[in-house]
Amino acid sequence: MMASPRPLIIGTRGSPLALWQARHVAARLKREGAAQVTLEVIRTAGDRLQQRHPGGFSAKGIFVKELEDALLARRVDLAVHSVKDLPGQLPPGLMLAAYPDREDPRDALLSIGARDLSGLPASATVGTTSLRRRAQLLRQRDDLCFVDMRGNVDTRVEKVRSGQVDALVLARAGLARLGLGADLMRPLPLDLCLPAPGQGALGIEARADDQEVLAILQALDDPTTRAEVVAERAVLAELDAGCLVPLAALGRMRDGALRLEAMVASPDGREVLREAVAGPPGQAEALGRGLAAALKARGAEAVLRQARRLAGGGSGRGA
């Protein structure tokens, strides 16, 4: 246990899920000996745009920049993120100091009547803003009609209950953390829908020169989660991908080896490239870079260029 004599300030967004995550980390820090931990809620550009334009924007790092600015300005000591919200590259001077234990990384289908994707009616309306989810689901059901849906998790779940959409696709981790939608939720198989890099994982960002905070955060770092997420984020960084393109990656530790799978797709789901590698967890970043190179060799860059061109004018069929 490493005690921290100084009070620690955690920067967080103000959504129910972000607050749950920050409070979870605060409780862990207190158990590790932190003298005092407080939260500072910071409104991001993504939060402001989400309020004004519920379905019409997408950009790298839109939910994290103000948190990182507060870190660099020393207004806060650390920031808690959903790793899937983070761009592949962090600003100079910042680092992901800890990855706590990961939740289930799978996506989940929420529907009142359907137990799986095949149970949805013809031309069913499905709420999601994710191009990655759209591309993979269109490959299975090209009749689906997608509805852009943002906002807090509880608000989106209520739209399924009220019949505004036939189904909703969300990260299972957020639902589990908030205790929402258990009666509606069915996890999607990984062979049908591979998750976003870092999905289900929390990343604790800190200043690279703050040795006191880095020392206490070591106790919160889970080596298995770190190996998996470092590999996934190496794919993301190497392909220079973000939320504007359909890209998925998932690392899983099995019998001491790290197996990494990744996918890029065209927005309509007609072209999908998927590759997998395995190796020692200590070579997680190299595995990710190697897997990205394998995808590039199969034409991933052309697929991603097409996705970026189409992203400005809508995403996927049935939008």
Description:
This protein is an alpha/beta fold and 319 residues long. It contains ten helices and 13 strands. The strands form three sheets. The protein has a five-stranded mixed sheet with strand order 2-1-3-10-4, sandwiched between helices. Strand 6 (125-127), helix 4 and strand 7 (145-147) form a beta-alpha-beta unit. Helix 8 runs parallel beside helix 9 (284-297). The protein is globular and about 60 Å long. Residues 52-58 and 313-319 have low confidence and may be disordered.
Q: What sort of overall outline do the alpha carbons produce when their principal axes are compared?
A: globular
Strand segment tally: 13
- Termini separation comes to 51 Å
Quaternary organisation of the protein chains: single chain
Name the structural class: alpha/beta
Helix content: 25-40%
Please provide the ordered H/E string of secondary-structure elements.
EHEHHEEEEHEHEHEEHHEEEHH
Radius of gyration: 19 Å
The overall pLDDT, averaged over residues, is 90
Kindly summarize this structure in a few lines.
This protein is an alpha/beta fold and 319 residues long.
Which characteristics define this entry?
alpha/beta, 319 residues, 5-stranded mixed β-sheet, single chain
Please outline the helices and strands.
Layout: E1 8-12, H1 16-31, E2 37-41, H2 45-52, H3 65-72, E3 78-82, E4 94-98, E5 107-110, E6 125-127, H4 131-140, E7 145-147, H5 153-161, E8 167-171, H6 172-178, E9 185-187, E10 202-207, H7 211-217, H8 223-238, E11 247-254, E12 257-265, E13 272-279, H9 284-297, H10 300-311
Parallel strand pairs: 1-2, 1-3, 6-7, 6-8
Antiparallel strand pairs: 3-10, 4-10, 5-8, 5-9, 11-12, 12-13
